[in-house]
TrEMBL record:
<feature type="domain" description="J">
    <location>
        <begin position="5"/>
        <end position="77"/>
    </location>
</feature>
<dbReference type="InterPro" id="IPR004640">
    <property type="entry name" value="HscB"/>
</dbReference>
<protein>
    <recommendedName>
        <fullName>Co-chaperone protein HscB homolog</fullName>
    </recommendedName>
</protein>
<keyword id="KW-0143">Chaperone</keyword>
<comment type="function">
    <text>Co-chaperone involved in the maturation of iron-sulfur cluster-containing proteins. Seems to help targeting proteins to be folded toward HscA.</text>
</comment>
<dbReference type="InterPro" id="IPR001623">
    <property type="entry name" value="DnaJ_domain"/>
</dbReference>
<dbReference type="GO" id="GO:0001671">
    <property type="term" value="F:ATPase activator activity"/>
</dbReference>
<dbReference type="Pfam" id="PF07743">
    <property type="entry name" value="HSCB_C"/>
</dbReference>
<dbReference type="GO" id="GO:0051087">
    <property type="term" value="F:protein-folding chaperone binding"/>
</dbReference>
<dbReference type="GO" id="GO:0051259">
    <property type="term" value="P:protein complex oligomerization"/>
</dbReference>
<dbReference type="GO" id="GO:1990230">
    <property type="term" value="C:iron-sulfur cluster transfer complex"/>
</dbReference>
<dbReference type="InterPro" id="IPR036386">
    <property type="entry name" value="HscB_C_sf"/>
</dbReference>
<dbReference type="InterPro" id="IPR009073">
    <property type="entry name" value="HscB_oligo_C"/>
</dbReference>
<comment type="similarity">
    <text>Belongs to the HscB family.</text>
</comment>
<comment type="subunit">
    <text>Interacts with HscA and stimulates its ATPase activity.</text>
</comment>
<dbReference type="GO" id="GO:0006457">
    <property type="term" value="P:protein folding"/>
</dbReference>
<dbReference type="InterPro" id="IPR036869">
    <property type="entry name" value="J_dom_sf"/>
</dbReference>
Length: 173
């Protein structure tokens, strides 16, 4: 038997759209049942299995709760393994990335916390738009290339979002 599907661990059908609160609640419930501490008095084999189940559950949860990771995972379920670092043949998006980076640098240089908040909201809207676009095409084999391009864009925006949160914390101190 192969590795269980991340979605199956949570009794979910493979889908991009997930109720993240429901996912978190189910994760906590499952995590309690497989937590290695519950198997402290069990045999060595049971303890090892509990550790493995706990690690699998954690990996599945981290993958499913993140839109870019969930997108990559869904594409991998539906087709060949995706390279981790793919060259982006997406000139329009590369230009957009440059503009976002320049804007973020200016916000950092001017220590503009209000500007960072506005930038963060615009970034969230762009992420929501990408999520909607990906949800509409990920399971259509004819739109695989488009879905992969959207997933790579999601990964970039996720990284940028992380950098914005870091900048926000630095400026807030």
């Amino acid at each position: 038997m192969g590795i269980p599907c991340h979605f199956a661990l949570f009794d979910l059908q493979p889908s991009f759209r997930l109720d993240l609160e429901q996912l978190a609640a189910r994760y906590r419930e499952l995590a309690r049942s497989v937590h290695p501490d519950r198997f402290a008095d069990a045999g060595e084999r049971e303890q090892r299995l509990a550790l493995e189940r706990s690690a699998s559950l954690n990996e599945a949860y981290q993958t499913l709760k993140s839109a870019p990771l969930r997108a990559r995972y869904l594409l991998t379920l539906r087709g060949p393994e995706l390279p981790l670092e793919a060259t982006v043949q997406d000139p329009e998006f590369l230009l957009q990335q440059m503009h976002w980076r320049e804007e973020l640098e200016e916000l950092q240089d001017s220590a503009d916390l209000a500007g960072v908040a506005i930038f963060k909201r615009r970034l969230k809207l762009a992420q929501d738009e990408l999520n909607d676009s990906f949800a509409a095409c990920w399971d259509d084999p004819r739109r695989r290339e488009e879905a992969e391009r959207l997933m790579r864009r999601m990964q970039f925006l996720d990284k940028l979002s992380y950098e914005v949160r870091q900048l926000e914390e630095r400026l807030d101190d």
